[in-house]
Amino acid sequence: MTSAERHASFIKSTAKRLGFDFCGIAKAEFLEEEAPRLEEWLSRNYNGEMGYLANHFDKRLDPTKLVEGAKTVVSMVYNYYPEKKLPESSEDIKLAKYAYGEDYHFVIREKLNEFLKILREEIGEIDGRGFVDSAPVMERQWAKKAGLGWLGKNSLLLNRQMGSFFFLAELIIDLEVTPDTPLAKDYCGTCTACIDACPTDAIVDHGVIDGSKCISYLTIELKDAIPSEFQGKMENWAFGCDICQDVCPWNRFSKPHQEAKFQPHPELAEFTHRDWQEITEETFRKVFKKSAVKRTKLAGLKRNVDFLKSK
């Protein structure tokens, strides 16, 4: 076994020990195929008001610009599918499942820091950085290159063993590691469930999303008033949206996560329509103390709930 193969084996066993469900490895190199796709997507203004997605174009495509001398991108999957969903009837105010518990950025960042520490203790001085949706890293594309799945028509990474209800995280390191092989095909076939179900027609082509129409964008990223054209189309999603994942046949393989920090605040399961409409600063701070929902601030959440109410 070569040192690169030994490194691959150790990295994968460490990822499993830290609670990651899958781990794949890719060679750190320029994402040549993605450059024209990203350029085209930006030229169509599909990023809406997410101007930051147009920044650091080169860094998004070249990991060596994020970590000098980078040789390897390690991609990992961390499950967040809940054992019990919050109410999701047509009358309920809905919250994307990833936001039920503590903010995943902090939960997974801690694990990545621990991962780098373990690698350095085992192998020696390694230059590297951990990423969890926190820098210009094309995480789905790297996960695909690492053999963890394929990009579905809803643009999310799909995995045959667990669907898509998971977070992606990366380690970019200057260590030579034997890479994995990408899947030879995607497994969406002729299915159009996600395209058919999207109430705002945000999926414009296979794997191409008009972000400015996505309910997740409208309820989180958009800081201005939600355009009236989306009146009656939000299906009661107040923060994020799971529609294209809920209808995906591959998510029948989703299994409950084992992360205690992703459990929702006890009061959240009891929220009524009225509780959402009358939420106070005190309740917001208590229930969403460590949650990703804090990104919208109370004013943003109220804007979303009021927009749903006015349908």
UniProtKB/TrEMBL annotation:
NCBIfam families: tRNA epoxyqueuosine(34) reductase QueG (TIGR00276). This is Epoxyqueuosine reductase. PANTHER family: EPOXYQUEUOSINE REDUCTASE. It comes from Algoriphagus machipongonensis. Catalyzes the conversion of epoxyqueuosine (oQ) to queuosine (Q), which is a hypermodified base found in the wobble positions of tRNA(Asp), tRNA(Asn), tRNA(His) and tRNA(Tyr). It is found in: Cytoplasm. It catalyses: epoxyqueuosine(34) in tRNA + AH2 = queuosine(34) in tRNA + A + H2O. Belongs to the QueG family. The active site is at D133. [4Fe-4S] cluster 1 binds at C188, C191, C194, C248.
